UniProtKB/TrEMBL annotation:
Belongs to the protein-tyrosine phosphatase family. SUPFAM superfamilies: (Phosphotyrosine protein) phosphatases II. InterPro entries: Prot-tyrosine_phosphatase-like (IPR029021), Tyr/Ser_Pase_IphP-type (IPR026893). This is Protein-tyrosine-phosphatase. It holds the Pfam family Y_phosphatase3. It comes from Sphingobium fuliginis (strain ATCC 27551).
Length: 261
């Protein structure tokens, strides 16, 4: 059995030139003393800016499935092009705006506290709005289509919840799940990304940095809100996994056999 090692940003980061918040989210210890395998689970923000060398490296990882949680207009604006036809690429079209940073900024006179409260409210609805995507994610794991990569635009909210659910299903303790979630703050180089864009978020970055911070930063209260919502509405994470996503105890045991050392 390999020794569980806390993933520092340096250990989780891949040797890529133009990735955004793209990292391995294995390497964590579970409550029963096992370890999530490295090289099996990846999470990312937009991958539209990857260089040819970056694409070659990602292809070399043997990724079998990608779950892209973005809405259709996001995928059109910033397509993911590096994978070949042999990779199972999941995406879906939907109308919900939860998780889209730009949508949350279309409010006149919003303050930083307004944005923080909006983010907290967001984490109450993500498990409902994106349940279909999370079912697809777990279905691919159940079918053995790993290594798996999950992504959205920032790799923080829709992807952050997806990664948290996977780690919870594998038996990773909640404080460790929060640690992985907060690692976005070390991996996401917003100054670099927004310099490549002419979007509402990029323009507001120049004039309303204080108001943007709650949207761009991962804060533990956001993930705490997710877990509290699952506790209140579904009897906890296991209840949500079982009743909403169809990931029962047997499926979780199978996942652990596949993804844990």
């Amino acid at each position: 059995m390999s020794e569980p090692v806390a993933l520092t940003p340096e250990k989780a980061r891949l040797p890529l030139e133009s990735a955004f918040n793209l990292r391995d989210f294995g390497g964590y210890a579970t409550a029963d003393g096992r370890c999530v395998k490295r090289g099996m689970l990846y999470r990312s923000g937009t991958m539209a800016l990857l260089t040819d060398a970056d694409a070659d490296h990602l292809r070399s990882l043997g990724i079998k499935a990608i779950c892209d949680f973005r809405r259709g207009n996001e995928r059109t604006a910033e397509p993911t092009l590096w994978h070949g036809s042999e990779v199972d690429y999941f995406c879906r079209d939907y109308a919900e705006s939860s998780g889209l940073l730009g949508e949350m900024l279309k409010r006149d006179g919003a303050t930083a506290d307004d944005m923080r409260q909006t983010m907290i409210a967001l984490y109450r609805v993500i498990p409902v709005d994106h349940a279909e995507s999370y079912r697809a994610m777990f279905a691919r794991i159940a079918d053995g289509r790993v290594p798996l990569l999950i992504n959205c635009s920032a790799g923080k909210d829709r992807t952050g919840v997806g990664a948290a659910l996977v780690l919870a299903a594998l038996g990773v303790p909640r404080p460790t799940i929060v640690q992985d979630y907060l690692a976005t703050n070390a991996h996401a180089d917003w100054d670099w990304l927004l310099a490549q864009r002419n979007t509402l978020v990029a323009r507001m970055r120049l004039t309303r940095t204080d108001m943007l911070e709650p949207l761009l930063k991962a804060e533990s209260v956001y993930l705490d809100t997710l877990f509290a919502t699952l506790d209140e509405s579904h009897g906890g994470v296991d209840g949500y996994l079982n009743d909403v996503l169809g990931v029962d105890a047997a499926a979780r045991d199978s996942m652990r056999g596949m993804l844990l050392d």
